[in-house]
Amino acid sequence: MSGQSRQNIKPGLEVNIVLKQDQRSGKLTNGIVKDILTNASFHPHGIKVRLQDGQVGRVKEIVLN
């Protein structure tokens, strides 16, 4: 599932994000959402979130268990 819609993302969800320094390479980082940082309901590059370990990036994929 895509991470462009805010309604799809909730704290506690497992997601793959791209960190700011990884935007060129597209390397994904896996983690659990702690906070949603984007206020808009939609963002073309992905909703910005903070993971439980403190890393911040844009959601590229929502991991469905």
From TrEMBL:
<dbReference type="InterPro" id="IPR019240">
    <property type="entry name" value="DUF2196"/>
</dbReference>
<dbReference type="Pfam" id="PF09962">
    <property type="entry name" value="DUF2196"/>
</dbReference>
<protein>
    <submittedName>
        <fullName>Repeat protein (TIGR03833 family)</fullName>
    </submittedName>
</protein>
